[in-house]
What does this fold into?
Amino acid sequence: MQWETVIGLEIHAQLATRSKIFSAAATAFGAEPNTQACAIDLGLPGVLPVLNQEAVRMAVRFGLAIDAEIGRRSVFARKNYFYPDLPKGYQISQYELPIVGKGQVEIVLDDQVKVIGVTRAHLEEDAGKSLHEDNSLGMGGMTGIDLNRAGTPLLEIVSEPDMRSAREAVAYARKIHQIVRYLGICDGNMQEGSFRCDANVSVRPKGQAEFGTRAEIKNLNSFRFLERAINFEVERQIELIESGGSVVQETRLYDPAKDETRSMRSKEEANDYRYFPDPDLLPVELDEAFIETLRSDLPELPDAKRHRFAQDYGLSEADAETLASSRALADYFERVAQVCGDARLAANWVNGELAAALNKEAKDISASPVSAEALGGLIQRILDNTISGKLAKQVFEALWAGAASADAVIEEQGLRQITDSGAIEAIVDQVIAANPKQVDNYRAADESKRPKMLGFFVGQVMKQSQGKANPQQVNQLLQAKLG
Ligand code: ADP
Ligand code: MG
It folds into this structure.
């Protein structure tokens, strides 16, 4: 039986406001436990929440960025449940009328573009955090509660069940991550919990129209875990069904150490949240002028940038997608292209040599030791034939190690390409004289075999010239001389 995977994601993006969504308490990460939660965050009697306008602006900016309907009237609702990290007994969220309605984003996989639907995005407050002491020694571990995070603004972004593989799910999550970072509405820090994913996963026989029963995997805090958790879960569900069982709708947890998902609670025990409109908060009504001001303020977004890069510079979708993945990288690439005047070569260098070097040292583009001007200068010297592509890599390494410019490296290391045909001809003659046997073979060989055999001579000439002979000239001269 052939199976098809169906995935929908719920992403919680922590909005980068300085204060909480309904109070003036600070949102800074890493403060002493319980120093940043006030009476409003705890929902103590006699206090009233006041909506942070900045959180509204950020949510609307996100909605505009994914081309979504903006809720002209949205309503906060109480989601009631008991948990130690939620002492007031309810979370303020949005239910029937979210601030952001249907929208969509594009993902690129294997150079193919696919549209993924976003069902909605709503504003809500975060809860506190339980910290469990290690009880492995059996000495009675304690659990403490840090309420600093209570009341931190979150944007919950719910996707349509449009993804068909773990790779697509990761590409979608990355795209949302890129968008919130482009907008500057979320720092995207997954280790600190600023960007968390829940994955809803089901399988169905290929060709079947109805969806299978889904399991929801909670709180995946890296793209790698997201991919692995989904792949594990898909295998588990298929094995279960093929061995005669059936999937139950439940919430599961991913354990990175064991690389497996485990049941946390089944739907039967799931909470009845008894949502109702929060009587302490007014509905949020947005007028056109407010929305249009935010729209006119939007930066160029990743998908638009990708389209522009692909069209204006003739790049592949895959190259354009990579270069548009962050504003810093996109700006860097455009500067390189501008300096050297050849966007495709610029794309190759930024996505190739530079990306590999950054990756190796786990550096972000903003910390690149090679500036866009320096890389553009290097590519210029390839384009004007001062150096060969091969020696260019050597120059790049010198730039990475701190050299000021390609020109300085070329001078210092004497890498200037030999384009003087007299000098190249002398080497070519030497090589031909030194290899009579190969020359005879070449001349006796069939026309179709010759290009490959020519490589030997080219290699010898390049070696003798320490890589400095212009390869095109070498090829031409050799062909002429060998007949
Ligand atoms: P809930 O509120 O119970 O989490 P929703 O209907 O809001 O349920 O769905 C939550 C997420 O689950 C959405 O991202 C949606 O796309 C996804 N989803 C719904 N049904 C399926 C399914 N059968 N398989 C995979 N994902 C699903
Ligand atoms: Mg859910």
Remarks:
- Residues 67 and 103 are 5 Å apart (CA to CA).
- DSSP finds 16 helices and 15 strands in the chain.
